[in-house]
Amino acid sequence: MKNLILAVAISIIALSCNQKLKSEDFIGASPNGTVTFNFSLDQNGRPYYTSSFTGSAVIDTSYLGFELGDGISLNDGLSVLSSSKSSFDETWEQPWGEQRLIRNNYNETRVELANEQGVKVAVIFRAFDNALAFRYEFPEQEGLKDFKVVDELTEFNMANDQDAWWIPAFGGNRYEYEYAKNKISELNKIHTPVTMEGNTYVAIHEADLTNYSSMVLTGNGTTKLKCDLVPYSTTDPTKAYLSAPFSTPWRMILMGKSAGDLMTNYTVLNLNEPNKLGDVSWVEPGKYVGVWWEMFVNIGTWHQGPKHAANTDNVKKYIDFASANGFKGVLVEGWNYGWDGNWMGGGTKFNFTKPYPDYDIDELSKYAADKGVYIIGHHETGADIDNYDAQLDDAYKYLSDYGLKTVKTGYVENGDTLPNGLYHHGQAFVQHFQRVIETGAKHKTMIVAHEPIKDTGKRRTYPNMVSREGARGQEYNAMGGNRADHVTILPFTRCLAAPFDYTPGVFDIKVKTRPGEQVWSTLTRELALYLVIYAPMEMANDLPENYEGHPALQFIRDVPTDWETTKVLSGQIGDHLAVARQERGTENWFVGAITDEEARTTTINFDFLPEGTTYKAVIYRNSDDADYIDNPTGYTIEEVTVNSTSSIDFNLCRAGGVAISLFKG
């Protein structure tokens, strides 16, 4: 990846490092002063911080610190040893993404503290114009070498009891829940990102989660949320085993005037290290189809038997469809030994280099290559990370040997812990996931991870980590359904963390093979999801035969997955959203707008287009009689000419949507 550095300005002001300084306030602000913070010690030597956005309080007095093993407390009795300030400004280029050029501009304050026994810890704050971030650093020191974290005491004491959109932590479905909305004071244990709406829109998450435990948040009936690190295992309550020097993940508070401001906030990427992989031209965004949805709609099975879907002839059908319609990949699930029996939660041992007898990987890999397509591998682990680790290098070499450029990984389990008692979101799984990313990079394999550890911006450092699930995705629409408003919440919550492999594109909305079931959406909203839920690898998830005869398939053919820039045109969490994206390397734009279960009129202003230029707009909209229950597949295709002064009102039916392709005229 070529970094485009527009400006770098670094200035450092150091204070005394040799003796303890008098406790004082450390006041900081972002480059334009929009975000401010104050860090200090109270009369008992307890560290705390506050923060504001555009002059309004966001974070009230919130305490920081740690309880470590061997009775070491970094909670009170602390004093300041030194401090420094610096500034940084650059613009860097993503190799792929929703925004090609990203500005990284912040002011940093670093304060080194020590307890009465001389154990040191530093707190580093970075103030961006749309976020505040901080992390802890344990420097190399005689009094602290190998140590364990008993508790991280970080607090987020919100200044206002705002409405928060959240999902529960420590639950059996990992991150796969529909979002609820409650006051902050009503929250218990929740995952991040958590998003709050009000005069200031706020999202709390973490960045650069490396060799540490995942942060969840715990409420206590007030506006205070406390960091609650996931334990190591069911028998070991330790939160993390560490060695100094060590830097924790960043704790990140995004701030904006609107919900849309959060969607185009890229602080999570700026808080990660630049690309470590060098040339990543082999990481290629694209679209794919797959042997997957048919298992959910009772046509095929993952396991062996008369309906086994991953057989050579069936996969060739998908390869032919992909080749004819411009898709790069064909995902194949159920191809390898391990699916027979109770595989969830490690019930069986998957073999990642042994295909089932009816799956001829030699023939299929060559057949796909001859058609200009490649097979996307699949590694379901049943959450048995020990079994996966033991085969990791062989498994990825196998993918590479057969030209499988991408792999979808999976970690399905029925509880909140892995088969060996390790927590799904604890330090051991974070470490395992890092090994997978690095092994994938070694073998030049892109990774799309399901049931993963949440994303915290790793894709900047490891661009082969292209996408994750980590939320309640499309498959639930074949298992009872997601609420109609679910996809109007995801872009403002889960999707703030990273690209989301939601797998849109259902055309058979009523799911004819599952009587009584349906996807709570409409066909044109499924098209619009390619814009409002970002992923560099986008699936068209339905069966090839369900796309036949639909002119609307042309939109999926046309829509790219790699963007020059992204603009949020309008939106409100849980209600509606409209997004415009410009295709990277061209002047083409694409627009998607969706609504929840309420019909509404959405106005699209085309002022994002360059002045003085006309565009042909191909519009895929709900038909006048469309409705997500009564007529979910009704749609109309229209062509009009637009320019930067144009504005069009669209009447979206319930759970409706509109998708627009804009080609320079």
Give a structural overview.
The protein is an alpha+beta fold and 665 residues long. The protein folds into 2 domains: 13-270, Beta-galactosidase, Chain A, domain 5 (Distorted Sandwich); 286-559, TIM Barrel (Alpha-Beta Barrel), CATH 3.20.20.70. Helix content is 15%, strand content 34%. It is built from 12 helices and 38 strands. The strands form 7 sheets. Strands 1, 8, 9, 10, 11, 14, 15, 17, 18, 22 and 23 form an 11-stranded antiparallel sheet that branches. Strands 29-28-27-26-25-24-30 form a 7-stranded parallel sheet. The chain has a 6-stranded antiparallel sheet with strand order 31-32-33-38-35-36. Strand 4 (47-53) and strand 5 (56-63) form a beta hairpin. Helix 4 (312-325) packs parallel to helix 5 (361-370) and helix 6 (385-401) packs parallel to helix 7 (427-442). The protein is globular, with a radius of gyration of 25 Å.
